[in-house]
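Tutorial handout. Part one gives the primary structure; part two gives the three-dimensional structure as tokens.
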Amino acid sequence: MTDTRTEPNIPIDRDNAGNIVCVLVDPFEVGDCQMNAGAQVNLNLVDPNAGTVIVTWDADVFTRHSQAFFGDQWHQSFNFKTRHGTSVAQVGGLDSPSMNNDNEVKHAHQERTISVDQDLFDAIRTVDWTGEC
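Part two.
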């Protein structure tokens, strides 16, 4: 059975280049699985004219009770929003490695390329983190 949970409205920071950094400050639990504090998602605007953005998710995850025969897997998605809650961009399908052993931490690193209008990119203020495991 798969559980799903959302941590809404996690605030973002910007690096010196104006790219978005959003860090999870508390552990995020979904069912028997956990993503550790310190996980982060970055949005790097690599081509403002075309709106090309690279989304990078890095996290340490584990399960307390792996599923027989096939293990568990963390599935992550993000909704990037303005300060008023308007969705600017969404990305999903970010999966951790398979977690076959109880309490064994696995590092997830996934990248996706998306398009975001430069004006809307600059309006992003919060991120909804949705995990499924």
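Part three, for discussion. The chain has one domain: 4-132. The radius of gyration is 15 Å.
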